[in-house]
Amino acid sequence: MCRKIITFFLGLFFILLLGGCGTDSDKADNGNNVIVFAAASTTNAITEISELFTKETGINVTKNIASASALAQQIEFGADADVFISANQRWADELEKKQLVAKRETIVGNRIVIILPASSTLSGNSPEILLQPEVKSISMGEPSSVPAGTYGKEALENIGLWKKIEGKVVSAKDVHSALAYVETSAAEVGIVYSTDAAISDKVKVVYNFPDETLAKPISYPAMTLKNSANPENADLFFDFLKDKISKDVFEKYGFIVDLKK
User: Fold this and answer.
1) Phi and psi dihedrals of 243, rounded to 5?
2) Quick check: 218 and 110 in contact, CB under 8 A?
3) Whole-model pTM?
4) Which H/E stretch holds residue 121?
5) Is 71 exposed, middle or buried (0-12, 13-18, 19+ CB in 10 A)?
6) CA 18 to CA 90: how far, in whole Å?
7) What was the pLDDT predicted at 259?
8) Helix or strand or coil: residue 256?
9) Residue 26: pLDDT above 60?
10) Element (H, E) at 61
11) Residue 260's pLDDT band (boundaries 50, 70, 90)?
């Protein structure tokens, strides 16, 4: 009994001790920080933009990068976030319906492409490459939730190929994972954003889906959130995303910055 009591109080002591130390997430609501949730496909661009933002403002950026669907769900369940950059309008709409969005604006666009491992001997420059018997696995983001996968499925449905290749699809948790499957030849073919293909020397693009294969162009909305602990910093980062400095970075990584095109 005594040992149990001692163990209980030791456990309580450590809980209190850890609670007083604080983690990065605990400190995320200080006045010199902004928490940015960003879709996986924006990783390189947002990392560079965050560094430029900190250099210009002195405000630290805490990044949470994952699939837009996962991030939106985290925000819905009360995760600390100041700014959210989604890879499609769907998840921005979901948060807006729940009255969690303060400001919202589409900032960049993207395209989807078919890729092969750089060393692949498959030939072809049309979507029909997916039908070749050598293609056993096609990696793409989970079609029901990951934006890149949703776009890929839509495009394939619109050209009449989805039902023919659905059984080959290997669903990935986000577009970076889909890219990694092809980079490592775990999948013979992949469908990813053109921006992801552009930053990898381990894959090659064999087909660009035309804009008309989708009902609406691929677009990335950015938004500030009503539950932000630092609304002023959130507004500063939100505005910085639309600045020429950030647009140049997005363009460097292959994003479409002139959305009128």
Assistant:
1) -75, 155
2) yes
3) 0.81
4) none
5) buried
6) 39
7) 78
8) strand
9) no
10) strand 60-66
11) low
